[in-house]
Amino acid sequence: MGAAGRAAALAGVALAGVATWRGVHARLERRRRDAGERWRVVTVLASPERLAEDAYPEPLRSAAPALEIRTAPAPGMRGIELSARMLPDAAAAPLLKRLTGMPPADAVRTVLRDTKQVLEAGEVLRVDPRPHGHRAATPFGAVVDGVEQAAKGKGIL
Amino acid sequence: MKAVTWQGVNKVGVEEVDEPTLLNEHDILVKVTLTTTCGSDLHLLGGYIPTMRSGDVLGHEFLGEVVEVGRGVSRRKVGERVVVSSFIACGRCWYCEQGLFSLCDNGNPNPGITEGLWGQSVGGCLGYSHAMGGYAGSHAEYVRVPYGDVGAFPVPDDVPDLRALFASDAASTGWMGADLGGVGPGSTVAVWGAGAVGQMAARASLLLGAERVLVIDRLPERLAQVREHIGAEVLDYSEEDVLPALRELTGGRGPDVCIEAVGMEAHRPGLDYAYDQVKQQLRLQTDRPTAVREAVMAARKGGSVFVLGVFGGLVDKFPLGAVMNKGLTLRGAQMHGQRYIPMLLERMQAGELTTEHLATHVMPLDEAARGYELFKSKGDGCVRSVFRP
């Protein structure tokens, strides 16, 4: 490969690198922006009056001062689409943190999921305390514990 | 109480653990009478489903007696002999209302894990990793069952324990594959895998009116069970090339419905198996889809393929072109036990569906490590190891 060829190859690699970095940067930026602002939505198989503004069940009732909330009928008799996002208010994130112990996006997911469960199944499902044998202290075990602890608030909701 | 726990990759043992308690108003507590190994447990044991934690109590297919009920339970009563669906479902969400119980929106307290893996969270399952809820399983003296009114079913007095036990999962799963795969009168069906689930899928196909049912495996004792107890034909893939044999046996068309009951650790002779093994062991793919590939290639034009075997993630060299160009319907699911168990118990009572032969090795819970070793190695003709706590 001559000098011109090497220069062209280097330029190609550089361009590909820039394009990749831009793509990753844009995605991270979207995620950062979405963390607090995006609407998060669950569909609840319940009648509209059970989600009337003056009759929110817990935990939605306690979180409501920190949230913008809207409801709409779901198509195909599937109940109500319940949407929420954090208000652009300095007090919103601290309230959500106090209620759930989670950062805003995770808190909104958790509030929506638990509210849906209360309306549909009557209560929030618990799993602890549960029987278990010896939990070995391993790096992989710590990862599984961490993943489970965060699982209620994570996901792509 | 004693319980069988996962203690690391390919390590199982019996430990003393705390007894479960009622945590929700809809919970019931069941004293376990019989609890069986399942092929999908082997994926947990082998580390192929990576959200296990040492000390987790295994087991999801079982039968027992109700010993306590929560305040919100109205249908189940203390003292009832019940068989329990392995998947946990609320019975109230839209998916449950459609009969798709393993997709319940409210059965998995760890939804973020499976949403990240698969785009949506699915229901929870007893004793089946933290991705599926992290519930303690049934290989124990007692087990907590959430949504007890929805997932536990009384067993008629004249159905023996070793028959009712398999309504919990194997029979429900097999029936679902035949039902949702579209088996009907006159169908020709091929089933990959002659384990308990494959046998139940074959039996279900016959009961749903299939004219010809062929079960594919390599283990002579399992193929013998298929002939003797299920009433289906068999194909030994260690002796015959499956694709040409199926064409010959189905008038050159291929089966109308292909049911895959093997899962992510499929075996078969040939280069593609070696390729899958290398990629799976290097974690370049999570699952070995050998049997699914073959089912896709075998199905008749316009036919259907139902994936009953458990898969966790990504596969390589999948014949998507065959799916598209042959106009196939490809479907799969974890099992919707609540949809099928009452009907299965009726058929068991009527003698149409017998399962006792599947329990080849019944032993005390203390011998669970030996039971899993036999089950994994398929030694001594083991089809299922069943534990008595």
Short key terms for the protein model shown above:
heterodimer; A: 157 residues; alpha+beta; three-stranded antiparallel beta sheet; 3 strands; 50% helix; extended; B: 389 residues; alpha/beta; Quinone Oxidoreductase, Chain A, domain 1; Rossmann fold; 2 domains; seven-stranded mixed beta sheet; six-stranded parallel beta sheet; 18 strands; 21% strand
Tell me about this structure.
The complex is a heterodimer of chains A (157) and B (389). Chain A is α+β, with helices and mostly antiparallel strands and 157 residues long. Chain A has a domain at 35-123. Chain A contains five helices and three strands; from the N terminus they run αβαββααα. In chain A, helix 3 crosses helix 4 (104-121). The longest helix of chain A is centred in the first third of the chain and has 35 residues, at 3-37. The mean pLDDT of chain A is 88. By secondary structure, chain B is α/β, with parallel strands linked by helices. Chain B has helices at residues 39-45, 94-97, 111-118, 148-151, 161-164, 170-181, 196-207, 220-230, 242-249, 271-281, 290-298, 320-325, 337-349, 368-377; strands at residues 2-6, 12-16, 28-36, 56-57, 61-69, 81-84, 87-88, 124-125, 142-145, 152-154, 188-192, 212-217, 233-236, 257-260, 304-307, 329-332, 361-364, 385-388. In chain B, strands 3, 5, 6, 9, 10, 17 and 18 form a seven-stranded mixed sheet that branches. The model of chain B has no long low-confidence stretch (mean pLDDT 95). The A-B interface holds A 43, 45, 78-79, 109, 113, 116-117, 120-123, 125-136, 138, 141, 144-145, 147-148, 150-157 and B 1, 3, 5, 7-8, 13, 15-21, 23-26, 51-57, 72, 90, 92-94, 97, 105-107, 109-113, 115-116, 119, 121, 130, 133-136, 140, 144, 146-147.
